[in-house]
């Protein structure tokens, strides 16, 4: 593998937002070009990667799709720490979702990378008849807080690719690529190993968190395990269980 230069870059990107805003659907549309009508909620975080060519730059996005449930909020800094870009997603049919997005923006402004490129995505733009948050309201908020704004639809693919292209374009304008995105081969190796163990740790941590907060979690896990099937001999006949110790064996033809 060749050393990564200024025209071939890696970028850590995080998606934040309320549960049900459509973060996972946006990533799935961007990475695989797919849309699932019923998307399961993310537990902890999910990792994706996708390469995007823009002008003379090729960027490999390392995408962390975070869980929107409040109980996973404490894990979020482990994902957005060191991120070069963030997409804060809200649902245009929910004012609560928009309010939650504002809180994520405030948190990133205080604790995130100061050079981070931030995008505000008003998702589910295909549900115009159920709209609760106007595009103008979101646009004004984004401009006042240093974000760029787009309305998206994972279902119709509206602006899904465009928002990632705009992140690349704005990163170049801000001259953040050489300082944030670029990395030597040795550094990347270390980061990949680090991300692997971080994800492993977080998966264990999430399970342990759920075990403590939800006693039925282990039971739910056990129910998903395949049931044991009776052993069969080569002829397909079910083997008879061995008789208990101490019982006398009988024979019909002694």
UniProtKB/TrEMBL annotation:
It comes from Escallonia herrerae. It is a lipid-anchor. Keywords: GTP-binding, Lipoprotein, Membrane, Nucleotide-binding, Prenylation, Protein transport, Transport. This is Uncharacterized protein. One of its GO terms (cellular component) is endomembrane system. Residues 235-254 are annotated as: Disordered. Belongs to the small GTPase superfamily. Rab family. Protein transport. Probably involved in vesicular traffic. InterPro entries: P-loop_NTPase, Small_GTP-bd, Small_GTPase.
């Amino acid at each position: 593998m060749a050393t990564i230069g200024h025209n071939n870059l890696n970028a850590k990107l995080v998606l934040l937002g309320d549960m049900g805003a459509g973060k996972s659907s946006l990533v799935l549309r961007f990475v695989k070009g797919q849309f699932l009508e019923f998307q399961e909620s993310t537990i902890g975080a999910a990792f994706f990667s996708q390469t995007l060519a823009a002008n003379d730059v090729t960027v490999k996005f390392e995408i962390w799709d975070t869980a929107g449930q409040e109980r996973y909020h404490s894990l979020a800094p482990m994902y957005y720490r060191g991120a070069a870009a963030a997409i804060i997603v809200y649902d245009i049919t929910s004012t609560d979702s928009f309010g939650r997005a504002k809180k994520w923006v405030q948190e990133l402004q205080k604790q995130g990378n100061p050079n981070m490129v931030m995008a505000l995505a008003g998702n589910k733009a295909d549900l115009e008849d159920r709209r609760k948050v106007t595009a103008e309201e979101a646009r004004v908020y984004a401009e006042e807080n240093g974000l760029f704004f787009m309305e998206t639809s994972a279902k119709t693919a509206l602006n899904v690719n465009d928002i990632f292209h705009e992140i690349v374009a704005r990163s170049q304008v801000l001259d953040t690529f050489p300082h944030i995105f670029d990395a030597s081969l040795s550094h990347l190796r270390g980061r990949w190993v680090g991300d692997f163990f971080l994800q492993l740790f977080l998966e264990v941590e999430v399970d342990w968190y759920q075990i403590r907060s939800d006693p039925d979690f282990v039971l739910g896990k056990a129910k998903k395990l395949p049931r044991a099937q009776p052993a069969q001999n080569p002829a397909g006949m079910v083997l008879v269980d061995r008789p208990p110790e101490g019982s006398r064996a009988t024979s019909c033809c002694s």
